[in-house]
Design a protein that fits this description.
Ubiquitin-like (UB roll); binds guanosine-5'-diphosphate; flat; 14 helices; metal ion binding; seven-stranded mixed β-sheet; 363 residues; 43% helix; Rossmann fold; nucleotide-binding; magnesium; alpha/beta; three-stranded mixed β-sheet; P-loop_NTPase; G_OBG
Length: 363
């Protein structure tokens, strides 16, 4: 599955947010197994109103959402890249995530100490990014040394690696994150394998005071501007509200939300933003036993989409029977869609679309 790492300076609201995420997940546990894996790792359901709609039409006995993993990565402070204290472990944790959710303190509260004694989310973001850049530089130097001999020996992979590492190094030495390096399609795989921290997409999570949850505030507006300039994403959220909501029953939670002027929980927006940031999309499998959502990257071909369910589906792929979500819903189910000629047979070259309802035929 896809993993988002939650990072941020101390006292910005990371734990509050992570606890809200996992408590919400725990509340869904009845039809949603494997929620909490480790104390700092939680799986959450990706909210998608389409799934319930499909299940209703097909009278599915079970509804199984697709999931996203959140990892609470504590311990990022100035100097983390030097490997002091928890630093190293923490950097190793970041290497393993697909994207970073960077929580920024956008709330004023004299009772909550700020490590730098001021509220400045843009400066905080720079502090963290600097640590990540330093960590990347250090690992690049180490790796360049490690491959010297192979490069001299003319090892093709090592030569490619060296070239990419040097491009990243030049970017970082210019004070910029490695994600700004322009990488050719044929280098993309090797580039991703480098797992540089500053190549991960970032979702800035602006943690604001409860009364600013709907509109944001001046600080979150600054973050929005920064995110847009970087090509990253941002969401405005009140970790405290999310904490409160996570303790309420569904009905109460809805009332509470509308009182706050919010259309949906911030956590839902956070998860959806993460999904968008990673260019992920959803397809569905629907039957009387279960209606289920599956996550794939945009542009995934049918056999690889089948492989998400089971490796054998990919290996033995014959074809996919496909109904678009809108057709399924408008016509009122699989049989009706089939009769209306809206069920297509697609082969190995088919690019799965968001919302496709699929059956895979395999050997
Ligand atoms: P972490 O160190 O980043 O994990 O931060 P915590 O989640 O432990 O939060 C630090 C403190 O800030 C706690 O006392 C929280 O209750 C408080 N806090 C978190 N979010 C908000 C907020 O939006 N507004 C206010 N006033 N306090 C908050």
């Amino acid at each position: 599955g896809f993993r988002m790492g939650i990072v941020g300076l101390p006292n910005v609201g990371k734990s509050t947010l992570f606890n809200a995420l996992t408590r919400t997940a725990a509340a869904q546990a009845a039809n949603f197994p494997f929620c909490t894996i480790e104390p700092n790792v939680g799986e959450v359901a990706v909210p998608d109103a389409r799934l319930a709609r499909l299940a209703e039409i097909a009278k599915s006995a079970q509804v199984i959402p697709t999931r996203m993993t959140f990892v609470d990565i504590a311990g990022l402070v100035k100097g983390a890249s030097k490997g002091e204290g928890l630093g190293n472990q923490f950097l190793a944790n970041i290497r393993e995530v697909d994207a970073i959710a960077h929580v920024l303190r956008c709330f004023e509260d004299d009772d909550v100490t700020h490590v730098e004694n001021r509220v400045d989310p843009v400066a905080d973001a720079e502090t963290i990014e600097t640590e990540l850049m330093l960590a990347d530089l250090e690992s690049i130097e180490r790796r360049l040394q490690n491959i010297v001999r192979k490069v001299r020996g003319g090892d093709k992979e090592a030569v490619q690696q060296e070239r990419l590492l040097k491009e990243a190094q030049a970017m970082l030495e210019a004070g910029k994150p490695a994600r700004l390096v322009e990488v050719d399609a044929e280098d993309m795989k090797a580039w991703r394998m480098l797992q540089l921290l500053t190549t991960k997409p970032v979702l800035y999570v602006c943690n604001v005071e409860e009364e600013n949850a709907a509109e944001g505030n001046a600080q979150s507006a600054r973050v929005a501007e920064m995110a847009a300039a970087e090509g990253n994403a941002h969401v405005v959220i009140s970790a405290k509200i999310e904490e409160e909501i996570s303790q309420l029953e569904a009905e109460e939670a809805e009332m509470f939300l509308s009182e706050m002027g919010l259309e949906e929980p911030g956590l839902d927006r956070l998860i959806k933003a993460g999904y968008g940031l990673l260019h992920l999309q959803t397809y569905f499998t629907v039957g009387p036993k279960e209606a289920r959502a599956w996550t794939i990257p945009e542009g995934t071909l049918a056999p690889q989409a089948a492989g998400v369910i089971h490796g054998d589906f990919e290996k033995g792929f014959i074809r996919a029977e496909t109904i678009a979500y809108d057709d399924f819903v408008e016509l009122g189910g699989e049989q009706a869609a089939k009769e209306a000629g809206k069920m297509r047979a697609e082969g190995k070259a088919y690019t799965v679309k968001d919302g496709d309802v699929l059956h895979f035929l395999h050997s």
